Recover the amino acids of this structure.
């Protein structure tokens, strides 16, 4: 999703800004821009193409400066056209970039029009630029503080003013913003990753903070306007660009990285000990009587899968909710419930807002399952479990999902043990199964050639149905989501037993039906559902376990998984669905790593 980079230095910082945008590019965007200050005021270049095009414009226009801001935009208000691309100017004196959404922009726009401001763009962002300009009395830091007090919604901003060379002011509320500290130069970005190569020392701004970057330092004011001291963190892990290696796309690379990602994620687990989830977790786990899982998209499906584990292994009531829905409905809070938030980036705006809402309702116990240790989510929860997926570049999540499942299984087993429902022998068995996962994943990945053969067929379809039962129903949901995200084929998932209650009406030979068929207690029921589809001429594509007696036949195509994986089966069964979506998208020639309209790390509500 959209990205911010800012810099104040004694050297030309355009290359730092462009390189920062390039590092954020994988998140998806539809336009980009950069502005620098020179003696006459801010000058800018903007593009509705790629950062590479912006770089060309900057080079051709000799854009240079020691103070600058830059942005990749994922449009929320106004089409992705040049006039709406950031940086947005106010009266050629001030330039501003913004991530987020200003909810009261219409009222502010009317007020500012009344003061004579002309609006050029359709963005909500333009009100921030004019508002700061209208409040500017020679001190940009003060003007920004006064302006943000009038904003409702979410924002991370970076702004510069022609009368204050060597100054960039930033502010955040609901969207991430981080300060990078250099020697005689300082930086600002929506993600520390953007500043890799420029610094390893960061300050992660807190909600409501306003900061002012100058050549020799940074000052920060908190929401009340008081000077604030924030911890400086050394974060070295951001170095080095991620290489594609022998793979065609990052998504393919990330699918194949899953054995490594899971090895790293389980490395911290020698036993199902509460301490894995942080200091004090034992006490928290003893205190709770239920779980409330809040997440979005793929992370929501990992939560749905976990519900089966948590209720069957630990016998703990578990509710799973879409974060953006939970936040806006009247729920009945239970202070003895552990709120679990799941997000790859730890910056998902909907999930952060839901977390805050839950805390506001009196939920005191919170746990984040997240892939980024420095994220807002980890900082705002009592307990955390870090998945070690490594940086995920593909917009369609793969290794983040399977490592989340590992984290959630570990949580279920840990709670089961604490509640006297896991004896030593079972614990040893589950640990053994977890350790076997990387090898098992490698065998599943070896099915790729068979899946490529199916993907040719799929690439000619416009619709697909996915079926699963029990804990594989969320896996069917995830398979359908992957296919629609990257191949743009309309796909839906149902628990197989629901077929006859409606969706069976859709089944014809033109509708492939993908079925996740592990050899579990529900297999016989699933086989009946398969016959219901065959009887109507439907084409079935079944991922069956090694010992399942489902064989190829008329209208029935079977790929056999190498083993039967028991309780961990969802972690294995999702992999062929990832590969099917990936190869179908490749056959259709879509932009797999940056699917249309989508963005990585969804930092707007
Ligand atoms: N609302 C602003 C910024 C959009 C954004 O944050 N996208 O991720 C706009 O539409 O320009």
């Amino acid at each position: 999703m959209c990205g911010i980079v800012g810099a104040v230095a004694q050297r030309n910082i355009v290359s730092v800004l462009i390189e920062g945008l390039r590092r954020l590019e994988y998140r998806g965007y539809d336009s980009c821009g950069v502005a620098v200050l020179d003696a006459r005021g801010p000058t800018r270049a903007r593009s509705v193409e790629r950062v590479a095009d912006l770089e060309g414009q900057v080079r051709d226009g000799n854009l240079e400066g020691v103070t600058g801001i830059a942005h990749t935009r994922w449009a929320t208000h106004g089409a992705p056209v040049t006039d709406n691309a950031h940086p947005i100017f106010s009266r050629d004196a001030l330039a501003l970039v913004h991530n987020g959404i200003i909810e009261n922009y219409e009222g502010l726009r009317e007020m500012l029009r009344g003061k004579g401001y002309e609006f050029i763009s359709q963005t909500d962002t333009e009100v921030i630029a004019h508002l700061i300009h209208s409040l500017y009395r020679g001190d940009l830091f003060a003007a920004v503080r006064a302006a943000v007090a009038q904003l409702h919604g979410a924002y991370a901003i970076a702004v510069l003013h022609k009368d204050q060379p060597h100054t960039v002011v930033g502010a955040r509320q609901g969207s991430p913003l981080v300060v990078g500290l250099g020697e005689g130069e300082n930086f600002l970005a929506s993600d520390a990753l953007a500043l890799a190569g420029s610094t390893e020392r960061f300050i992660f701004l807190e909600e409501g903070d306003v900061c002012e970057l100058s050549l020799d330092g940074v000052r920060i004011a908190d929401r009340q306007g008081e000077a604030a001291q924030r911890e400086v963190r050394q974060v070295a892990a951001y170095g080095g660009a991620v290489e594609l290696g022998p793979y065609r796309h990052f998504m393919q690379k990330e699918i194949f990285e899953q054995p490594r990602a899971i090895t790293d994620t389980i490395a911290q687990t020698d036993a199902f000990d509460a301490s894995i989830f942080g200091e004090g977790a034992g006490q928290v786990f003893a205190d709770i009587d239920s779980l409330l899982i809040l997440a979005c998209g793929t992370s929501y499906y990992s939560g749905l899968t976990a519900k089966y584990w948590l209720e069957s292994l630990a016998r703990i009531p578990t509710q799973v909710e879409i974060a953006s829905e939970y936040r806006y409905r009247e729920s009945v809070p239970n202070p003895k419930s552990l709120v679990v938030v799941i997000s790859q980036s730890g910056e998902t705006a909907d999930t952060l807002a839901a977390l805050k809402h839950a805390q506001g309702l009196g939920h005191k116990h919170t746990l984040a399952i997240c892939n980024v240790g420095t994220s807002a989510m980890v900082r705002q929860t009592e307990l955390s479990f870090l998945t070690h997926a490594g940086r995920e570049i593909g917009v369609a999540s793969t290794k983040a999902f399977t490592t989340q499942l590992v984290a959630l299984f570990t949580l279920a087993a840990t709670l089961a043990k604490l509640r006297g429902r896991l004896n030593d022998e079972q614990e040893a068995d589950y640990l053994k199964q977890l350790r076997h996962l990387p090898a098992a994943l490698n065998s599943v990945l070896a099915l790729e050639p068979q899946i490529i053969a199916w993907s040719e067929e799929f690439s000619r379809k416009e619709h697909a149905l996915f079926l699963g039962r029990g804990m594989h129903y969320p896996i069917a949901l995830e398979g359908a989501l992957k296919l629609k995200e990257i191949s743009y084929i309309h796909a839906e998932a149902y628990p197989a037993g629901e077929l006859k209650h409606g969706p069976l009406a859709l089944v014809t030979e033109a509708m492939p039906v993908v079925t996740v068929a592990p050899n579990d207690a529900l297999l016989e029921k699933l086989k009946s559902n398969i016959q219901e589809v065959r009887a109507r001429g439907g084409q079935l594509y079944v991922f069956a376990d090694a010992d399942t007696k489902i064989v190829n036949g008329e209208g029935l195509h079977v790929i056999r998984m190498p083993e039967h994986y028991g309780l961990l089966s969802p972690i294995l069964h999702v992999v062929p669905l990832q590969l099917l979506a990936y190869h179908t998208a490749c056959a259709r020639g879509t932009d797999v790593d940056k699917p249309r309209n989508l963005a990585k790390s969804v930092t707007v509500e």
About this structure: The pocket of glutamine hydroxamate is lined by residues 1-2, 73-78, 84, 98-101, 123-125, 604 (CB under 6 Å). The first strand starts at residue 3 and ends at 8. The two ends are 11 Å apart (CA to CA).
